[in-house]
Write a structure and sequence with these properties.
This protein is an alpha+beta fold. It is about 50% helix and about 15% strand. The protein is built from twelve helices and ten strands. The strands form three sheets. The protein has a four-stranded mixed β-sheet, covered by helices on one side. A four-stranded antiparallel β-sheet has the order 2-3-7-6, with no helix packed on it. A two-stranded antiparallel sheet has the order 9-10. A hairpin with a 2-residue loop joins strand 9 and strand 10. The longest helix has about 35 residues. The protein is globular. About 50% of the residues are buried. Bound molecules: flavin-adenine dinucleotide. The site of flavin-adenine dinucleotide has 21 residues, from strand 1, strand 3 and helix 12.
């Protein structure tokens, strides 16, 4: 394993720096966050640079790059602006990889070119009021109806739903099945008849718009079924590693930015006649923060390498997501303490890193559930006989 950036990756990262400096500079990030205005204008620009098809196989119209390169890109985007990285991840890790892993030939033909051109993404509609961590408790129903299906139920906290090319709706299609069995995925237009959405307000990640969605007897054709009938969870599992790499790499990028921001402040801010970064209490804190970010980065790079190598990544993906998101939570908390009132000020960036960070230790698999998974892989927890 070589975790150093290659010359090619360095050139790519330089081009991302230029993209962000020109099209999403820091003052624009602050404005968009304040106004909850997603940076969708970046998608066609990313498409033009070939970023959206970076890890897509050459025969499917992409560049066929490794996930190690993707992880570098996601980290750099996270360093510049979490809002840009989340958008990129929704198109690449979820939309494109879901299509490649589970889409029919017709679905790929209909949506892959559009995603590669930066027209939009898919939004995953899995969570329900009664089914969060316990996704297998979902109650939305899909009932066969003539040549197609009729969907009824409610989904909550669905990111990017209104602007999505399609919602990927998980619904129970087999009456008798319980838990993760008997669930199918359906591609539903966000403006289909019977779909109604209400936007949810939230404290962080304000540019990733989130919705409460009601499905009232929504009629879809047979061609809306994504992957085999009743095997929705197996389909979602196939792309889970990509999503976890994306989120973890993004978290490492934002965490590095928080450390750099706090360290720069500690060098400039003078109290008691000297820079506060000279006080060992703060210098040691910053040294620990940097070390934790470096540790998390190594795990994320190892996960990307394992994906490229075709290894089973279940445990590694959980470890990388846990390490990266818990690190982000800790370093933004510490960054706030080091910067004190300057960190708390609305016009500064630390408060945004801190607000955004709070989501990731429970969104897309909470830390508790991830630790359960890791423990169980070690033969502990639920894997240990009573
Ligand atoms: C901003 C935002 C965006 C989101 N975007 C999407 C999206 O696009 N699509 C989508 O489908 N969902 C989305 N979600 C939902 C998100 O994935 C869920 O919030 C997450 O799965 C946790 O569910 P919950 O909030 O209901 O918490 P709960 O499941 O109620 O958990 C509450 C607490 O109990 C703990 N807990 C639960 N079960 C166990 C257990 N067995 N052992 C130990 N502890 C346990 C959890 O770790 C957590 O700390 C989003 C959520 C937010 C806030």
């Amino acid at each position: 394993m070589d975790f150093g950036d290659t010359d090619e990756q360095r050139l790519l990262l330089d081009s991302i720096d230029r993209l962000m400096d020109r099209h999403l500079p820091p003052e624009e990030v602050r404005r968009r966050d304040a106004e909850a205005d997603p940076p969708d204008h970046l998608l066609p620009l990313m498409a033009e640079m070939g970023l959206l098809g970076l890890a897509v196989p050459v025969d499917a119209g992409g560049a066929g790059a490794a996930w190690q390169t993707m992880a570098c890109v996601q980290e750099r985007l996270g360093y510049h602006a979490t809002m840009a990285a989340l958008l990129f991840n929704r198109v690449t890790c979820f939309g494109i990889m879901t299509l490649l892993a589970s889409g029919s030939r017709a679905q790929r033909a209909a949506f892959l070119p559009r995603m590669l051109a930066g027209e939009g993404a898919f939004a995953l509609a899995l969570t329900e009021p009664g089914a969060g961590s316990d996704a297998g408790a979902l109650a939305a129903r899909a009932v066969p109806d003539g040549e197609g299906w009729r969907l009824t139920g409610r989904k909550v906290w669905i990111s990017g739903a209104a602007a999505a090319l399609r919602l990927v709706v998980a619904a129970r299609s087999a009456k008798s099945a319980r838990g993760g069995g008997g669930i199918s995925l359906f591609l539903v237009p966000p403006d289909a008849e019977g779909v109604s959405m209400t936007r949810l307000d939230k404290i962080g990640n304000r540019c990733s718009l989130t919705y409460d969605i009601a499905f009232d007897g929504v009629r879809v054709g047979q061609d809306a079924l994504l992957g085999p009938r009743d095997a929705g969870f197996a389909c979602l599992k196939k792309t889970l590693f990509y999503g976890r790499t994306g989120l973890s790499a993004t978290a490492v990028g934002t965490a590095q930015r928080a450390v750099d921001t706090a360290a720069a402040h500690a060098c400039e801010r003078v109290q008691f006649g000297q820079a506060i970064g000279r006080f060992q209490a703060l210098a040691h804190r910053l040294a620990i923060m940097q070390t934790e970010v470096d540790q998390a980065r190594l795990l994320v790079r190892q996960l990307a390498w394992a994906i490229d190598d075709g290894k089973d990544c279940t445990r590694l993906a959980a470890q990388a997501k846990w390490a990266a998101t818990e690190t982000l939570k800790r370093v933004t908390e510490e960054g706030m303490q080091i910067m004190a009132s300057a960190g708390y000020a609305a016009e500064g960036d630390m408060q945004r890193y801190w607000r955004d960070a709070r989501l990731y230790t429970f969104g897309e698999g909470s830390s508790e559930i991830l630790l359960d998974l890791i423990a169980s892989d070690m033969g502990l927890g639920r894997a240990l006989p009573k």
